[in-house]
């Protein structure tokens, strides 16, 4: 397993004792490859930050081990791990200049001044902050502080860079810029990035692989496409993107919704009473005369420019949301109260366990 | 905003009370300073302006001796008490909250609460037995006593500074390969420096003007500036004491101004 950077083996973290015990991490095992942009995604309190802190060494697991390049580092203190962190609050040293902040790691390692100078200059160049080198952190804008934090964590050339919701304090435009920047840096440097976020869009656009977590458990690990198109359960489908959920009875290759509407599903689907999930953009709206899987009535239509969000009602009062792509001719979704046909893209209908 | 917030400044009689308080506080001090420039040697009858008492005080060998002793004690005691206070502050803020926390806090601040005279008598008896046992008669007793009662004064500003400090900074230092000692040396200590400076100055001033404990603890020939001045005033009131007081006042004001500037400037 030479291409594995970080391996977590059956990690468990319990805070408190006995009746007041809170399980922050429940038997989590995960393998993160070298050079990968790996995202831990989940709502607050899901354990993603706890896992990150364990990799950094700020928290000790109650059970389980952490391996870096095959070596057990569970018992190593943070200052012995070739792992650096970009903190959510940046945690820049206010009494040091930008240059001293960026050089801090190397100078603690006792590297010669000339080498530190050179590396710091390169790191500052990487984040385009050469001009700010002699300022104090509090003289910089939020976005610049963020870049200093990044340069500081990258300067000692860590094996793994940990990023704890580093973009959450930035405004939308700056956040988008930094997303691109982070991705560029990661590709350029080839360092393993482990990124923590609760923002599903951020996770989808930046990651090579995503791990979705909820209440201390790892629900699914996969590429953004796998996670989006084949969520393993209702929680993952609900957390990432928008989804229609319809209670259904599954028997063989048929899912019955609302008692009398039968829809074809994958034969490998779990049988019995489950939830049928379909993404709004996987539903195609066609004129009522055309051949279609289902008939529906448009009850609401909101125009968003590139598309319209359309609310549909099926014969048995089941409601669905669909997207109607605006075409180049400026064609718009059919008006409210129009009778339409619905076609589902192949594989669009998925049976999910709760 | 039509509704005005409550303000004590708008209560009837506020100005009168404020002025009375300020006069009561500062008139005696102003008088003391004024009479240090008196040409006569009375501290009650004005005989014209003169600076003569300052050289008189300066050339008084005894004054120089007790001043030097006071400064030595204050400097040593403030350094020692600040060191202890810094460690105490780190110990009480850098650890997880424990049940004994309040008790420890009370213990550290004990000299602020126990009547000074009680401490003085206790120290007198305690040191007397040590003196008998060891035969040592030096300044050590005074320094030890001053260090003890200066600790809470040094402790408070340091603790305040520590509580306002972002703990993530120390975690970040550890993440960047700093050992515990390096973290303390390169992150905690520099950030704490203004608090330590402020604590040391408060301790210095507190030690400098102590009378009660010094009177009880000192051996013969160990007068400090305040106890010397007390003795002088008992014997005969002279404007020389006014001049010394004025200089002491000036030193205190300078130190407290520096303290204020240090604590006010937050980064």
Task: Note down, in words, how this protein is organized.
The complex is a heterodimer of chains A (354) and B (267). By secondary structure, chain A is α+β, with helices and mostly antiparallel strands. Chain A has two domains: 231 residues, Rossmann fold (3-Layer(aba) Sandwich); 111 residues, OB fold (Dihydrolipoamide Acetyltransferase, E2P). Chain A has eight helices and 20 strands. Chain A has a six-stranded mixed sheet, with helices on both faces. In chain A, strands 13-12-11-14-20 form a five-stranded antiparallel sheet, with no helix packed on it. In chain A, strands 15-19-16-17-18 form a five-stranded antiparallel sheet, with no helix packed on it. In chain A, a hairpin with a 2-residue loop joins strand 11 and strand 12. Chain A is elongated. The two termini of chain A are 34 Å apart. The mean pLDDT of chain A is 89. Chain B has twelve helices and no strands. Chain B is mainly alpha-helical and 267 residues long. In chain B, helix 8 runs antiparallel to helix 9 and helix 9 packs antiparallel against helix 12. Chain B is globular. Chain B has two domains: 42 residues, no CATH class; 204 residues, MetI-like (MetI-like fold), CATH 1.10.3720. The mean pLDDT of chain B is 87. Chains A and B meet through strand 6 and helix 2 of A and helix 8 and helix 9 of B.
């Amino acid at each position: 397993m030479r291409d594995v950077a970080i391996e977590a083996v059956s990690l468990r973290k319990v805070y408190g004792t006995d009746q007041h015990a809170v399980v922050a991490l429940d038997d989590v095992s995960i393998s993160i490859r070298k050079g990968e942009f790996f995202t831990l995604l989940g709502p607050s309190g899901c354990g993603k930050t706890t896992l990150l802190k364990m990799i950094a060494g700020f928290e000790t697991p109650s059970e389980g081990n952490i391996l870096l390049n095959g070596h057990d580092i569970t018992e190593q203190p943070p200052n012995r791990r070739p792992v650096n962190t970009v903190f959510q609050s940046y945690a820049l040293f206010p009494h040091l200049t930008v240059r001293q902040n960026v050089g801090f790691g190397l100078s603690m390692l006792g590297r010669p001044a000339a080498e530190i100078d050179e590396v710091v200059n390169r790191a500052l160049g990487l984040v385009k902050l050469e001009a700010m080198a002699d300022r104090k952190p509090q003289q910089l804008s939020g976005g610049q502080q963020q870049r200093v934090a990044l340069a500081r964590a990258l300067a000692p050339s860590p094996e793994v860079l940990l990023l704890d919701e580093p973009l959450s304090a930035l405004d939308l435009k700056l956040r988008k810029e930094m997303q691109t920047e982070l991705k560029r840096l990661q590709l350029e440097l080839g360092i393993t990035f482990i990124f923590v976020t609760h923002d599903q869009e951020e996770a989808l656009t930046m990651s090579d692989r995503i791990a979705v977590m909820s209440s201390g458990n790892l629900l699914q690990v996969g590429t953004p496409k796998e996670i989006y198109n084949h969520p393993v359960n209702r929680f993952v489908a609900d957390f990432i993107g928008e989804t229609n959920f319809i209670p259904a009875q599954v028997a063989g290759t048929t899912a019955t919704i609302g008692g009398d509407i039968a829809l074809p599903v994958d034969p490998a689907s779990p049988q019995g009473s489950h939830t049928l999930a379909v993404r709004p953009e996987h539903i195609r709206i066609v004129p009522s005369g055309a051949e279609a899987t289902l008939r529906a009535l448009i009850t609401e239509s909101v125009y968003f420019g590139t598309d319209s969000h359309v609310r549909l009602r099926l014969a048995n009062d089941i409601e669905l949301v669909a997207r109607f792509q605006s075409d180049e001719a400026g064609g718009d979704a059919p008006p409210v109260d129009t009778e339409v046909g619905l076609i589902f893209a192949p594989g669009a209908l998925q049976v999910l366990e709760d | 905003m039509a509704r005005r917030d409550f303000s004590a400044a708008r209560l009837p009689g506020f100005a009168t009370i404020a002025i009375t308080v300020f006069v009561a506080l500062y008139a005696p001090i102003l008088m003391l300073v004024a009479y240090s420039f008196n040409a006569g040697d009375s501290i009650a009858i004005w005989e014209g302006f003169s600076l003569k008492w300052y050289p008189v005080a300066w050339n008084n060998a005894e004054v120089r001796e007790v001043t030097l002793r006071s400064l030595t004690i204050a400097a040593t005691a403030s350094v020692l008490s600040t060191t202890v206070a810094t460690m105490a502050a780190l110990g009480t803020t850098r650890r997880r909250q424990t049940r004994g926390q309040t008790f420890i806090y009370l213990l550290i601040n004990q000299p602020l609460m126990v009547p000074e005279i009680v401490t003085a008598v206790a120290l007198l008896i305690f040191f007397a037995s040590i003196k008998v046992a060891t035969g040592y008669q030096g300044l050590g007793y005074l320094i030890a006593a001053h260090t003890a009662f200066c600790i809470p004064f040094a402790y408070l500003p340091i603790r305040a500074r520590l509580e306002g400090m972002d703990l993530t900074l120390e975690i970040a230092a550890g993440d960047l390969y700093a050992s515990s000692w390096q973290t303390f040396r390169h992150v905690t200590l520099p950030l704490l420096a203004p608090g330590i400076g402020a604590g040391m100055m408060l301790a210095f001033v507190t030690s400098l003007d102590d009378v009660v404990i010094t009177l009880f603890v000192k051996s013969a020939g160990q007068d400090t500036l305040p106890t010397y001045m007390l003795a002088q005033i008992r014997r005969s009131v002279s404007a020389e004491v006014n001049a010394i007081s004025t200089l002491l006042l000036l030193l205190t004001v300078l130190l407290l101004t520096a303290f204020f500037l240090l604590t006010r400037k937050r980064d």
